[in-house]
Amino acid sequence: MEMLIGRALQFQSFHSSVDAIFWHQLSSYKVEQQKLDASPVVIHGRFNTYSRSAISIVFGKAPENSSIKECIAEGTLINANTQQEFVEANVKEIRESMGKKLLESIEKDTVAEKPNELIQFLLFSYADIKSYRYHYWCLFPSLKNTSLWIVKGSQPAESVIPSNIISPKILEFWKTSDFTQRSFFIVAKNENGRWLVLPLKELPRCLNNRLDYFIFVVDSFQLQEYPSWPTRNLLAYLSIKFNLEKTRIIMYRDGVNSDSLSRSIYLDLVSQKNQDSSQPLSTVGWERNGKGQLGPRVVNLSSLIDPVLLSESASMLNLSLMRWRLVPQLNLGIIQNTKCLLLGAGTLGCGVARNLVSWGVRHITFVDYSNVAYSNPVRQSLFTFEDCKRKHPKAQCAASRLKEIYPKMFSEGHSISIPMLGHPIYKSEVERTKRDYQTLENLFLSHDAIFLLTDTRESRWLPTVMATSLNKILINSALGFDSWLVMRHGSLSQGENRLGCYFCNDVFAPSNSVIDRTLDQTCTVTRAGCTNIATAIAVELFVSLLQHPDGIGAPVCNKDATVLGELPHQIRGFLHDYSLFKISGKAYQQCSACSECIINEWKKRKWDFVLQAINDSDYVEELCGLRLVQQLGERAGAMEEWDSDNESILA
Amino acid sequence: MTVSAISFQQHLLQLIPTFTNRGILCELVEVFEPILQLQWQAKPYSDEKTSFEEDESEMIYVLPDVSVQAWIRFSPSFQVPQFFFQLYSNGCFPLTKLENVTALLRPENRELAMDALAIGDCPASNGIAWYVHPCCTQTFFQTAQVSKQDTSYLPMWILYIHRLLSPITTPMIEALDDKSS
């Protein structure tokens, strides 16, 4: 502190500390009580010798029994009703009004009875409650153009005051007086040589009786050399009210329970007329904002208290931690931004959707033609009993249920049918089916990945054709009673190493699998665990595929191929022995779904091709060459029969 | 809730005078369980020296410290104390991104902190708060072998918290040091 000697004292400004609780209380007060009334509201601030020039702003009046460890500053909140009102407010007038109030307190000496009138402050705000944004500006008023105070001497307080005697007396003073007395008080030696702690109103007695006294000011500081704002206002009080030309103050920086004054500093000060002292007193004290400029602050608390945003950040946290802690190269953005189309909103569809949401996918569209049935809710996790009673369409119901789980989800459902081979389209249904087909095609165009989760073989044919032609990621999952299949279809970009599709191992085009079947043969009857396993693996395969630099064109890869490990083609699992197989196969040139002739024909003729393929049962097999393969197969079979007839004769 | 001879509430009550002597604002709140609410200012980690500038001839402006709101509660599932906190820069801007929080910590603590921190519902206030995951705390207590009946139960745990969050939690440690001296 020696560096200050001979220099004019400078002061540290206070910083407001306003937390979410304050704004929440203000919001509640505004909505429930204040409404449009712009009358001032009582608030208070708390600080102590360790609060490093920060003052915590608290809503409401200071409690009478506030802890003796804190100093209390009484404040006023003025909350504007509109942002315009806030922006256009005359801040100079507000500032001068507070300065006038401070000066009045000094001149009329109400400070003597309530010393903490020297540290009254103002908070001017506008609360945009709906968007959780709060504009505010704090004013800690001080008077400008008062006398300067030159430091004549400075030393540790313990060198001028016996701390072992004074410290307990300070504690006793704080215990017995109310909070208005704590920030400024006097320590004086009376006529009998006894040290006393006195309220500030005893200053005239100390002056008149020429007592040996020190004025204590509770100092919350960041930099040792600079006392804080309360000291400035105290010195203005001494200068204006008592016209003191010199004074001795103690910057009280110890805790009130401390038994020493080791942190506190004694200052011997001499007043010097400020060169601006001929100017009328004006006021300063608006707080600087977060950029260090004189201006209001805007606090956006939506990330802290807006439930929708809380949901967003919390749901991504687990994935972010995965990336921070375990897989730094994990590309979460590509997962989040991939638009997924789920064909089928049944057991597989619900399971896949849930897993996709866990991975951060935020755009899911469902396609399903049926309504929620009473048998669905126990196996299909997005539906409830109420949905059955109200006969909600599955696609839309699943979409809105996802939004209930995660509000920022983009999800929608389409109740359309998928044209299927083996299910002829009658004349009366052509228009409706064509509309459904066009909706389906638009959905394919607008999404990045397709999940084939329907319940029949033939319903997967058209999506396979379209996805292959449009080069969309396609993840296919199918269930048996105790077995399951998950596979990714190949891409034309893989060239001659193109991986196969669901139909590449077939020598017949798909046909109507539900005609003339019993109930147990038409419904997929499957062990409950199969679905959960299949849907989990389907989504994991999809996410791994996204991590590969080649994406849809990625070949079958070993365990180090992606940051998440292997990238197989097909996975088949069997619950009866808990086994799992990884299989790969190339695309079949005569495939009924992904062969080039099929794809090209679809590209050329679109709906006309689909209509012909569905209504002419031989067309697809003829086009892709499967009819020829069948004929060759029949011939080979006949020749074998001939040969085996010979053997039987011989036997 | 009773935990052997000394209840968790009693442990919290023992901390209050220690912390308040060091200027940490403390309040014991009862929200279905005893929770100690704390508030203080902390100087974050920085390589740069504290700078200031003149606001006007008599006033200087120093960049504010970080405001810390914290809560201590007992995790019934993990049977360990749990530390929640909110950080505000410039007195009012909440820090809700992990990288912004860890940037305030000592470089040697950051990786540990990133492993141990999570975000969740604030126990005694609306909104969310950061917390030190109690499964990491469980591991600490298994190693430290401090009994719940020991008066140093919470102080030892605070040392562990400080290892992760230093220098944000320095005032708590200084308060404990003041008490022991």
Q: Main sheet of chain A?
A: 8 strands, mixed
Structural class of chain A: alpha/beta
- Given this structure, which CATH class of the largest domain in chain A is correct? Alpha Beta
Total number of domains of chain B = 1
The outline of chain B comes out as globular
- What is the end-to-end distance of chain A? 119 Å
In DSSP terms (H or I, runs of 4 or more residues), the helix count of chain A works out at 21
- The CATH architecture term of chain B is 2-Layer Sandwich
Mean pLDDT of chain A: 89
Q: Rg of chain A from C-alpha positions?
A: 41 Å
Keywords (chain A): Autophagy, Cytoplasm, Protein transport, Transport, Ubl conjugation pathway
Organism (chain A): Schizosaccharomyces cryophilus (strain OY26 / ATCC MYA-4695 / CBS 11777 / NBRC 106824 / NRRL Y48691) (Fission yeast)
Domain THIF-type NAD/FAD binding fold (chain A): 323-549
GO molecular function (chain A): Atg12 activating enzyme activity; Atg8 activating enzyme activity; ATP hydrolysis activity
Describe this structure as you would to a colleague:
The complex is a heterodimer of chains A (651) and B (181). Chain A folds into three domains: 157 residues, Cytidine Deaminase, domain 2; 134 residues, Cytidine Deaminase, domain 2 (3-Layer(aba) Sandwich), CATH 3.40.140.100; 279 residues, NAD(P)-binding Rossmann-like Domain (Rossmann fold, 3-Layer(aba) Sandwich), CATH 3.40.50. In chain A, 36% of the residues lie in helices and 23% in strands. Chain A has 21 helices and 25 strands. The longest helix of chain A is centred in the last third of the chain and has 25 residues. Chain A is elongated and about 135 Å long. The termini of chain A are far apart. Chain B has 181 residues and is α+β, with helices and mostly antiparallel strands. Chain B is globular, with a radius of gyration of 17 Å. In chain B, helix 5 runs antiparallel to helix 6. In chain B, strands 1, 2, 5, 6, 7, 8 and 9 form a seven-stranded antiparallel β-sheet that branches. Chain B has a two-stranded antiparallel sheet with strand order 3-4. At the A-B interface, strand 1, strand 2, helix 1, strand 7 and helix 8 of A face strand 2, strand 3, strand 4, strand 6 and strand 7 of B. Strand 1 of chain A pairs parallel with strand 4 of chain B. Chain A: InterPro entries: Atg7, Atg7_N, Atg7_N_1, Atg7_N_2, ThiF/MoeB/HesA, ThiF_NAD_FAD-bd, Ubiquitin-activating_enz. Chain A: Keywords: Autophagy, Cytoplasm, Protein transport, Transport, Ubl conjugation pathway. Chain A: One of its GO terms (molecular function) is ATP hydrolysis activity.
